[in-house]
Write a structure and sequence with these properties.
The protein is mainly beta. The protein is about 10% helix and about 55% strand. About 35% of the residues are buried.
């Protein structure tokens, strides 16, 4: 048993030893084949020149190379092509370079750059040898490597129609109708003019100092442009778009790309998704459609119309009207010159320094408003509503929303439930309907009308008529600044006490009625019916009618 086991171990060890030797031999053969196949790279330059006239067109198609185009003051086209080849045996390199063709041929009234290399010639594929075998095994059929660079000089006034891939493009100092298409290669343009139509995928694009209209199209194409005198139209995706100083209108249609814009002299229309949008200094109208985009905008000379969702929106210094349509978007806006309309939900709304009417519809939004020259309308629910320093009137429609309103110039109308309602320093009338709301009013210049239930109503420093209808609501009116001549005070509730403090030298006719409570009065009383304890009081000329009814106690001071 031990003997057979020992033999097995020896065989296994011998097998491992043989395998290691085979592996080493295989690596040696591959390395030897690779070294034998290697060759140094070599490059050669080819040139072509032809006379032309300004205003013609140059056509370049499918060169798969780096291309550099420069405008000059000479009426000629100069083409210089540098070809570098690697991984080609020395016996084939001379044949390869001799087979290259470069020419300028007449085409559509202009010229076309013609460059042909023997890269696709099957003679320049190596199929023999162990090295070639393993390259083919892993899918690397072609053995040679080629790099091409084309330098072209043309008259400044010259149109370009260029279609390229797998190479970078650079164009400088050219004026004309410029059509440039590229894929998997960068594009750089500087100091050009005319009309530019650029399309590029999967690479970076830069455009500087272009005098004319520009259109850029592509996918996964980062874009930077600065100093564009005309209109700029962009379609992009997944990569950043950064633009500065656009002399005309700007349109951006993006998908999942960050957008930064500064200084647009015309209209600015931007749409993208899921990324950030920052826009500053627009002389025309601003339109933004940003699904799930965080948005920052400032210094907009005309109207701003924004639609977004789920991310914050910050905007300031809008000389026109602001219109926002959001879903679960927090909104912060200030310095708006011609009013605003805000629609959003579930997030905070903060607005200040608004000239013009303000309309807010914010379901489950906390709302804070300060300094509006105009009227304000707010619809919200469940969250705090705070409004202050409004020159016009205020309308609030809330559901379970606590409301605070201070320094409102005209009438205030509030509808809410279950939360505290406070109004201070109101220049007009106050009309409140608050089921299960406590109501606190202070310094009200106009008439007061309150309907509530189960919570107290406190009124101080009033100057107009007062009417309160409560259900199980305690009522207190104090520090009346002025009783309206020919006006009234009606305080009606159930089961709870009512307290009224009259000013000195009041001219009133008072009727007090309680079913189950006591009446305490600092004034002489006249009892009309002992069963329900009615009381009549007359003071002065009786210019104001006071009526108090409750099932609880009444206190008159």
């Amino acid at each position: 048993m031990r003997h057979y086991f020992y033999r097995y171990k020896r065989i296994f060890k011998n097998g491992v030893s043989v395998m290691k030797k085979l592996q080493l031999l295989l690596l040696f053969l591959i390395s030897t084949s690779a070294l034998s196949a290697m060759s140094f790279s070599e490059q050669q330059t080819y040139s072509k020149q032809i006379s032309t006239t300004p205003g013609n067109a140059l056509y370049i198609e499918n060169l798969q190379s780096d291309i550099l185009i420069t405008g000059s003051d000479k009426n000629e086209i100069n083409v210089e092509a540098t070809i570098e080849v690697s991984d080609l045996p020395s016996d084939l390199r001379e044949e390869f370079f001799n087979a290259i063709e470069l020419d300028l041929v007449n085409y559509r009234g202009g010229y076309r750059v013609h460059l042909k290399t023997p890269a696709d010639d099957r003679r320049f594929y190596r199929k023999e040898g162990l090295f070639s075998f393993f390259r083919g095994l892993f899918g690397a059929e072609r053995d040679i490597s080629i790099y091409k660079q084309i330098k072209i000089t043309i008259p400044v006034e010259q149109s370009i129609d260029l279609d390229n891939e797998f190479g970078d493009i650079e164009v400088k100092n050219v004026q004309g109708n410029l059509i440039i298409e590229n894929s998997s290669g960068e594009i750089y343009m500087e100091n050009c003019a005319g009309v530019l139509q650029l399309q590029n995928n999967y690479a970076f694009n830069e455009i500087y100092d272009f005098d004319g209209d520009v259109t850029v199209r592509g996918s996964s194409n980062a874009i930077t442009a600065k100093n564009i005198s005309g209109d700029l139209n962009i379609k992009a995706s997944y990569k950043p778009v950064r633009l500065e100083k656009v002399g005309g209108n700007l349109i951006i249609r993006g998908q999942s790309c960050d957008v930064f814009v500064d200084d647009v002299q015309g209209k600015c229309d931007v749409s993208t998704s899921y990324k950030s949008i920052e826009i500053r200094n627009v002389s025309g109208e601003l339109i933004i459609d940003g699904t799930s985009c965080s948005i920052t905008a400032a210094n907009i000379a005309q109207d701003a119309i924004i639609e977004t969702s789920y991310k914050p929106l910050i905007i300031e210094d809008v000389m026109g009207r602001l219109d926002i349509r959001g879903t679960s978007t927090s909104v912060s806006a200030k310095n708006i010159s011609k009013g605003a309309s805000i629609r959003t939900s579930y997030k905070d709304i903060s607005l200040e320094h608004i000239s013009g009417d303000l309309d807010i519809d914010g379901s489950s939004c906390t709302v804070s408003i300060n300094d509006v020259v105009g009227n304000v309308s707010v619809t919200s629910s469940y969250k705090q509503i705070y409004v202050a320093n409004i020159s016009g009137g205020l309308k609030v429609k809330g559901s379970s929303s606590p409301v605070t309103a201070k320094f409102i110039g005209k009438d205030v109308i509030i509808r809410s439930s279950y939360k505290d309602l406070r109004c201070e320093n109101i220049g007009g009338n106050v009309d409140i309907d608050g089921a299960s709301c406590s109501v606190i009013l202070d310094s009200i210049a106009g008439n007061i009308n309150v309907s509530n239930s189960y919570k107290y109503v406190t009124i101080s420093r009033s100057s107009g008529s007062i009417e309160v209808h409560g259900s199980s609501s305690p009522i207190e009116v104090d520090k009346i600044e002025k009783l309206p001549k020919g006006g009234y005070i009606k305080l009606i509730t159930t089961y709870k006490p009512v307290r009224l403090n009259l000013p000195e030298n009041a001219d009133v006719i008072i009727s007090l009625k309680t079913k189950h409570g006591k009446i305490r009065s600092d004034y002489p009383v006249y009892i009309e019916d002992e069963d329900v304890k009615p009381i009549k009081i007359e003071l002065g000329e009786g210019n104001t009618v006071v009526t108090i009814e409750t099932d609880g106690d009444i206190t008159l001071k």
